[in-house]
Structure formats: structure tokens, C-alpha cells
Amino acid sequence: MTVERTLHHFPLDPFSRQARLALGEKKLSFREQVEKYWERPPGLQALNPSGLTPVLVEADGGETIAICEAPAVLAHIEERYPDPPLLPASPAGRAEVRRLAHWFDTKFHFEVNGSILHEKMEKRLLGLGSPDPVVLRTGREALKVHLAYMEELLRDRTWLAGDRLSFADIAAAGHLSVIDYMGEGMWDAFPAVKTWYAKIKSRPSFRPLLADRQPGLPPSAHYHDLDF
Amino acid sequence: MTVERTLHHFPLDPFSRQARLALGEKKLSFREQVEKYWERPPGLQALNPSGLTPVLVEADGGETIAICEAPAVLAHIEERYPDPPLLPASPAGRAEVRRLAHWFDTKFHFEVNGSILHEKMEKRLLGLGSPDPVVLRTGREALKVHLAYMEELLRDRTWLAGDRLSFADIAAAGHLSVIDYMGEGMWDAFPAVKTWYAKIKSRPSFRPLLADRQPGLPPSAHYHDLDF
Predict the structure, then answer these.
(1) Within an 8 Å CB–CB cutoff, is residue B99 touching chain A?
(2) Chain B, 121-150: which have a CB under 8 Å from a chain A CB?
(3) Above pLDDT 90, what percent of chain A?
(4) Fewer CB within 10 Å: N-end or C-end of chain B?
(5) What sign does the dihedral B24-B27-B31-B37 (CA atoms) show?
(6) H or E stretch including A130?
(7) CB < 8 Å to A76, chain B
(8) Rounded to two decimals, what is the model's pTM?
(9) Where are the domains of chain B?
(10) Is the CB of residue B48 less than 8 Å from the CB of residue B69?
(11) Percentages helix, strand, coil for chain A, rounded to the nearest 5?
(12) Which CATH architecture has domain B4-80?
């Protein structure tokens, strides 16, 4: 049975990036449809009433299903394509992966994306003027706290949730890689995070993300370097 | 094997309520530990570095595991105690449940809780003064949009995601029941939502929530009525 897959996404959306990384890790091919979600495209709205990316559409000849937003896309991919696993088998392992993925999707998203990405990306895309340095500074302080927490975890662990790559790493990489694109990385101050990010960045699943280029928003000088 | 369960929760936290409802639907007993999360209790912080509720701690004689925050708690409960199912078996059904649960936990939470619960509950708990009527009005307008969307879904469906009670209903009930406690229900304008909420409210799993009473924050007059 051939499954036809289309991913509706926006390249610099941290949640869309999680779907692309997860599909890449599972070696699942997909057609891409880039969505400028802030323009409320009717096609996207019809697939997902919230109007947000990512949406994964799968058609297997019979049913066509739309899976909306990163947590559902990741859960679906794991259930339908269990190999290689991106969630551990044990209840404790699964809980730890989910705790960390949720941390990045809620706490990091609110505290860091809500200021740094809003000021440097969304304002540009929406034509809302230049970044507010006070808000940017608040975002950078919050980013430091998150990177320090990751550094603490990664001193004892190969990957964020333990000894295997998991959805926790994919969630974190979805968010941090956009921060990196914007040149806000601060990698040198957090050596264990830097090693972790270099490992993620050199995976085949990450390669398409390195090619992303948003008109009017060029990536930082070191965004493409695997040895940054 | 006996599993000892403790739920760390705050009675008026919409996410904690989801864990209580899900445990109730699965008929799983648990000890309760009420946490005033905004006071950052060290015990809670040690279990969940984000400092948020709910946290479910399960000990089965061997391992003790802590499952942090509603999405992980719900996923864990479903995986470990599949009967009765609160997620459908089909990929399309699971995607729809997850889409709606995520809708309430992100969009509803941001647009409605962020104004109504912040103004009427958090400000009171934190001693930040009285509600701002302008913010409250914005929250009420957003609530209307959400209730209208639910009304549309519930015209064709018995439960939010289809013909069986699921985590979508539990997520929605977690959030809406706190709105109801605060007397912000607007049920009469949305008859299908009112029928749905009356059904949820009369389930045995909801009974403990009807007994909640927060000092200084009494429930609305109709909060306890099953026939409201």
C-alpha cells in the first residue's frame, strides 16, 4: 500500500520543523506545501480550523486523513510507523520524553519564541516594524535559562531524554534551529548543548532545514555550518 | 500488583481537572495532594521542573514514576489502562481527538483562560487587585467564538470528537468547568453545548469537581446544579 503524504508547513515555524524532522528520521517521503499561515490561506483553514501549521495529509487510496499540529503529527507518526522508535518503550521513558517535548512547546515557546521570534520574525513577516530591544533582551534572558537547563540535562545524557534520540530532541531542535537561523544561538556558553545541537544538525533529517531561506529574512552567517 | 497513585493538583487548574476526570473515567483511585503551584512548593518543583500541575506519581512496589502535565498524564493513562478507551482505535479518530484536545490546551487556554481566569482567579490568588473589565470583555468575546465552534461540532456529534467520550471532551470539560465555576458559562446561548456540558457534569468522574471550593473564590450560584 502506497501512502501519499503532503505536509502543509511554513519553513521557519518551529512546530512545522518538528514534523519535517520526525518524517525525516522515519525516512518517510512527503510532498511539501508551504503555507503563509498568517495570511489565513483558505486551504489550510479547511484542513485545520485553528489555521496553524503543520498539517500532515495522508492518503492511502482509501481514506484521506489530516493530522493537525505537531503533537498529533508526532504521535501519529510513531503509532503508524514505529521503526525507528522516537518514544522509549517504558512508561517512565515515555513520560520523560513527553515532559520535555511539552516544555519546549509551551514554556520555551511562550518565554523565548514569544519575544525573540515575535520581534525578529513575525514583525517582519507581518510588516509591524523593527524589533523592540527591550522585549528582545527579555527573550534572550529567558533563552539563557532554557539553555542552562538543557546543559544540566545533557551533562549526564547523550540525548535530552536519555540515551536515544526522541521526540524531546525533535521538539527542542524545532525551536532552537529557528533561534539559530535568527543568529540568537549563544552556543559557546553552553558546551554540552553545542555538542548536542551539532549532532542534530548533521543528521540527514536536518539537511532540508539547512536549505531554508525566507525572503527578507536571511539566515545568520553560521546557520549552515555543521562546525559552528 | 497494586499501584499507589498520588495526583499533585490544584482544584481550579483546568489541566489538573483533566487528570482528575481521566482517572475518574478509568475508575483509578488516587491520593490527592493539593499544590498552590504559584507559591512554588519545593516538592512540586522536584517532581516537575516547570513547577506546574498536574503531576501523577505512580509506585508499583518497584519503580516510582512521575508523569508531568495533562497531555503526558492522559497519554500515560490511556497506554497503561486502555479500558474504557478514551482514544479511538483509528488513526483518523485519534487525530481528531488530539486536534481538539490541543485546541483547548493552547488556543482556548491562551484566548479565554489568559483573560477570564487570569483576571478573576489568578489575580485573586496572587493578590494583584481586581479584574480589569476591558480584558474580561475581550475574554468573553473569545469564549463566545469557542462556544459557537463547539456548537457547530455538537450539532452533528454526540461527543466533541465523534460518538464516544474521549480526551477531547475531557480537555474541554477541564477548561469549561473552571469558566463555569467563575460564573462565565453563557450556556443558554449554545443549546448543543449546554446538553453536552450537562452530560459531562452528571458523570461520576465529575462529582469530585462539584465539591471543589477555593477559599476567597466561591463558585457561581449554578456551579453545583446538574440541571442548570
Answers:
(1) yes
(2) 149
(3) 95
(4) N
(5) negative
(6) none
(7) 91, 94-95, 98
(8) 0.97
(9) 4-80, 91-204
(10) yes
(11) 55, 10, 35
(12) 3-Layer(aba) Sandwich (3.40)
Count of other CB atoms within 10 angstroms of residue A220:
15
Q: Does A82 touch chain B (CB under 8 A)?
A: no
- Closest-approach residue (CA) in chain A for B79: A91
pLDDT value at residue A187: 95
Please name the fold of domain A91-203: Glutathione S-transferase Yfyf (Class Pi); Chain A, domain 2 (1.20.1050)
CATH of B91-204, one of 3.30.70.1620, 3.30.950.10, 1.10.10.10, 1.20.1050.10: 1.20.1050.10
Half-sphere exposure of B128 (CA within 13 A, CB side): 12
C-alpha cell at B152: 457547530
Those residues of chain A that have pLDDT short of 50 are none
Q: pLDDT means per 10 residues in chain B (228 residues)?
A: 93 98 98 97 98 97 94 98 97 98 98 97 93 97 98 97 97 98 96 97 97 94 90
Q: Is B95 on the interface with A (CB under 8 A)?
A: yes
